[in-house]
Design brief:
The complex is a heterodimer of chains A (about 190) and B (about 190). Chain A has two helices and twelve strands, in the order αββββββαββββββ. Chain A has about 190 residues and is mainly beta. Classes of the chains: A mainly beta (about 190), B mainly alpha (about 190).
Amino acid sequence: MKRFSFNSLALASLIAAASLSANAATLNAGKSQLGFSFKQMGVPTEGRFKAFTANVDFDAAKPDATKAEFTVDLASIDVGSSDGNNAVKGKDFFNTASGPKATFTAKSVKALGGGKFEARGPLTMKGVTRDIVSTFTAKTAGAETTLEGTFPLQRLQFKIGEGAWDDTDAIADLVTVKYKFVLNGK
Amino acid sequence: MQRYSSAQIALHWLIALLIFSAFGLAWYFGSVEITSPATFKLKGSLIVWHKWVGITVLALVLIRLVLRVVRGAPAALPNQPAWQVKAAEATHYLLYALMVALPVIGWLLTSAKGYPVVLFKLVQLPDLVGKDEALGKTLQDVHEFAAYTLLALVALHAAAAIKHHFIDRDDTLKRMLPSSSSRKNGL
């Protein structure tokens, strides 16, 4: 029953994390999504990350006070085929063996009006840190808040695709990240 | 001798050429293993071209089917054994069916694999099914099986045409050849 003990360990640490930061909501991993789209050979392709965690303290009424940290398990990437998944974990792409995580910290969040917000902060991936800007919407229903948004990033800035993989005719530089984070509790 | 219309003749040979190109592209990309950016790009281009050729065949075959209904086909030459006339007819219908089915299955499989068709890098065709890796694999098997069935039928079809032309020395094949070359043959 190894699996069981791992699960209860994960649950225990989740509870611990939640109680440590009393203000932060917990991420509903089952309902949340972190995907991306890009073009290969001119053909739009979708991918996603299956494992990510978030520590978010967001109040639509006080966006300036937002505290949010996201961690993505890069090895949980799914680009649609097992060959592709193995390739993108390799050295030339995410190099998950030496840098398994990507992190984003929201440094500032401001309201744009109409339920829209703009988050700004550093994204660190493969040893490279760059500020990104993302617009998102926030919807609250009962104890559940859903943050949904996108942001563009240039993969070559993060050395995703080194050497001759920098050919943007084969794989476009622009990657659009799409996310939906469902938060429970406040 | 009653001949197919010039539009039917042009479409027949153009589609034949495209079908052989589709096979060539498929065999080529099937042999390319992605080991480098160059092989990735090569394989990607070959697959993209294969899809373009397939969708073009689909469009041309649909035009051909309309012409077939509107203009019909020349009757079989007289004094042919009935079973051969029936076999030829059955082969023609199966060829039409597969020429429609193969591109459609290919379109389904590429939709299921999550790689839409962007025709000539210009128009993105709608996905016929949602992304489903297992379904994509199954459809790929069906696509390959149907392709080899088509190839076998094409071989039978071509063998029959060659037999009529060179052994029976009748006009069966000439009905599907451009009239200028048949005039030369007619000398």
